Every structure is written in structure tokens, then in C-alpha cells.
Amino acid sequence: MTAIKGAVALVTGGSRGIGKALVEELYNRGAAKVYATARDPLTVTHPAAVPVALEVTDEKSVAAAAQQASDVTILINNAGGLVRASFLGSPVDDVRREFETNFYGPLLVARAFVPIIERNGGGHILNVASVLSWLGISGSYSASKAALWSQTNSLRLELADRGIGVTGLHVGYVDTDMTAQVDAPKSDPGVVAGLALDGVESGAYEVLADDVSRQVKAGLAHDPAVLYPQLVK
């Protein structure tokens, strides 16, 4: 279990959406310092947060962020991209771009910050995935989040004896800029952030932040036709 009170955290993609809500909730729970990253650090608006420029797909940018934030004990990999490339109809480069952001980005950041967290006495990593980790209806986005889910599980095993816990967050639609055009029920980002940090503090392996995530995860135990009724003729 990881105490947030007094901890130093870094949130990638911390200027908006779930990331912004996570920054706010970390401070609400007594974090000593929160680094909020963005491609443009001027977009970080929380008055107490430390803005950090970061492009998660760029190793030099990741290394610079790690050098700046050398006191981190909690890493939250929230930054992500949404391409939804078709495997058959879109350029392969679009698929690669999604994986660069959603899979390799969190990997590069984790590799940079694991030694830092270890030196600082241990801590926690939270990876923000999606219900689409388990539901292949969004092309490259679903596949990249499924890969992040697998990465999260593997990192948890690798770090089990190194004093670093790993939690995966899965959620459906959240009321953010990314889903502004979606006409469907959406979770409040503040509620999602609260549940995610509950998971960090309790040492949960996964946080399923809404009913749809819980239902889809449960459906993995059944035949694929349960999750994909369109397969039934």
C-alpha cells in the first residue's frame, strides 16, 4: 500500500481530463508535490502543480522530465492518444502512432522513473487504460490499450520484489474534451480520479471505475459472442 499524503507524484497528461482531475485529487489527499506534464506546460492550470514539458514518445523528453522530477514516488501514466485506426483500411503508420503513445509512451516513462522511485524508498505506478482494453471495437485504440493492460500486468510481476506497486485503471466514457461529441452516459473525471487513488492507496491490482468496465471484464470468462453479439447470425 502507498500513502499519498506527503508523497511526490508525477501525472503525465496532467493538464486536462482525467489527468487534471488526478492532479487535483492528489493535492486533496495531501500530496507534497505533484508534477503535471503536458506537451505545452503552459496548459497546466493547477496553482500548486509543477508544470513539466513532456512528449512521452520522445526518449530525450522523457529523460529530461526524469532529471527534473527526481523526487517522485508515485508515477501516473495518464497521457494517451486516440486515433482508432482501422487495421485494414487505415495507413499502418496510424496504427503505429497509436501504439507509440498508448503503449511505448508509458513504457518509456516507467523505465525512466522506476529507478527514481526505488531510490526514493519505493512507491507506486498507476497506468490509465480503458474498458476497451477488453473490447476490440475501436481498432488500433483498443489494441494499444489491450497491450497496455498486458504491460501493466507484466510490470507488476517485475516490480513485486522492488517495493513498487502497480495498478491498472479501466473505465468507459469519461466526461472530458475527448468525449465531447459522444452521446452516452459518462463518468465524472473527479469520481474516476478518486477511485483510482483509492486503488493506489489500497494496493489494488486493478480499478474498474464504472459498471460497463465491470461488466465487460466479467464477460471475458465467456465465449466471445457474449461480448460481440454482432457475431451471432
Structure write-up:
The structure is a single chain. Helix 1 packs across helix 5, helix 2 (59-68) packs parallel to helix 3 (92-119) and helix 3 (92-119) runs parallel beside helix 4. Helix 1 (17-28) links the parallel strand 1 (8-11) and strand 2 (33-38). This protein starts with 7 loop residues before the first strand and ends in a 6-residue tail after the last helix. The protein has helices spanning 17-28, 59-68, 92-119, 139-159, 189-202, 211-219, 224-227; strands at 8-11, 33-38, 50-53, 74-77, 123-128, 164-170, 206-208. A seven-stranded parallel sheet has the order 3-2-1-4-5-6-7, with helices on both faces. By secondary structure, the protein is an alpha/beta fold. It has seven helices and seven strands. The protein has one domain (8-231): NAD(P)-binding Rossmann-like Domain (Rossmann fold, 3-Layer(aba) Sandwich).
Terminal Cα separation, in Å? 48 Å
Structural class: alpha/beta
Domains, number? 1
CATH superfamily: NAD(P)-binding Rossmann-like Domain
CATH topology: Rossmann fold
Helix content bin: 40-55%
Produce a short descriptive summary:
This protein has 233 residues and is of the alpha/beta class. It contains seven helices and seven strands.
Descriptors for this entry?
seven-stranded parallel β-sheet; single chain; globular; alpha/beta; 233 residues; 42% helix; Rossmann fold; 7 helices
Outline the secondary-structure elements:
Elements (H helix, E strand, L loop, with lengths): L7 E4 L5 H12 L4 E6 L11 E4 L5 H10 L5 E4 L14 H28 L3 E6 L10 H21 L4 E7 L18 H14 L3 E3 L2 H9 L4 H4 L6
Parallel strand pairs: 1-2, 1-4, 2-3, 4-5, 5-6, 6-7
Helix pairs in contact: 1-5, 2-3, 3-4
